Amino acid sequence: MLINVGRLSKEKGQHYLIRVFRHVNREIPDSRLILVSDGPLRPYLEKLISDLCLEGKALVLGWRPNPFKYMARSTLFCLPSTREGFGNVIVESLACGLPVMAADCLSGPREILAPGTEYKVEKLRKPEYGDYGILMPVMDGKLYTAKDPLTWQEEVWAEEIIKLLKDSRPLEEYRRKALRRALDFDAEKQVKKYFEVIFNE
């Protein structure tokens, strides 16, 4: 099962994920996609699901007080955002032992999934396997209909998800590393680092 948790808005990119999922589901009919949250784009996303004949396969669950129970039971967290802050949901996914695939958007995903490496943003044209997750090309920021062909970025996402669902060994490796990476962002550790920066100046 693929999952995304985040406000249903244009910059979060769930519309790309739905279009990508249509191709994934054609190749892997028992695959499922769930979107956990709510937001202004919900009517558009639900229409897109209907137009792509994905009812019952792609679900918009709305806001849930405990999204972690869905995350813990999922196969892959997909974050196709065109921009992010720190990306709390990435760390939350890792804490649930959930492998993460995220767009290499500014500014959080790479710092969490591939620390110490340089952002590529528009230069990234194929999947990049970081230490703690998979970085993907950033989408183009446009809204599309069910009739529009996939963009090249969406094609890359679809191909990689299909590949991972057919051979889950990379996901299992990321699953083993996930909690360890999430603990790097433990509050006590972070507060200690802030104090080191402040008082070493």
Structure in words:
The protein is α/β, with parallel strands linked by helices and 201 residues long. It has one domain (2-199): Rossmann fold, CATH 3.40.50.2000. It is 42% helix and 13% strand. It is built from eight helices and seven strands, in the order E-H-E-H-E-H-E-H-E-H-E-E-H-H-H. It has helices at 14-27, 42-51, 68-72, 88-95, 109-113, 152-166, 169-182, 187-199; strands at 2-5, 33-36, 58-62, 76-79, 100-103, 128-129, 134-136. Strands 3-2-1-4-5-7-6 form a seven-stranded mixed sheet, sandwiched between helices. Strand 6 (128-129) and strand 7 (134-136) form a beta hairpin. Helix 1 crosses helix 6 (152-166). The radius of gyration is 17 Å and the shape is globular. The model has no long low-confidence stretch (mean pLDDT 94).
Q: What is the number of strand segments?
A: 7
Helical proportion?
A: 40-55%
Element-level helix/strand string? EHEHEHEHEHEEHHH
Oligomer classification: single chain
- Determine the CATH superfamily: Glycogen Phosphorylase B
Give the total of domains. Answer: 1
CATH class: Alpha Beta
Structural category is alpha/beta
| Helix run count | 8
Q: What fraction of residues sit in β-strands?
A: 5-15%
Give the terminus-to-terminus CA distance.
47 Å
Mean pLDDT: 94
Low-confidence stretches: none
Shape: globular
- Strand count, sense and closure of the main sheet? 7 strands, mixed
Order of the strands making up the biggest sheet: 3-2-1-4-5-7-6
What is the annotated CATH architecture?
Answer: 3-Layer(aba) Sandwich
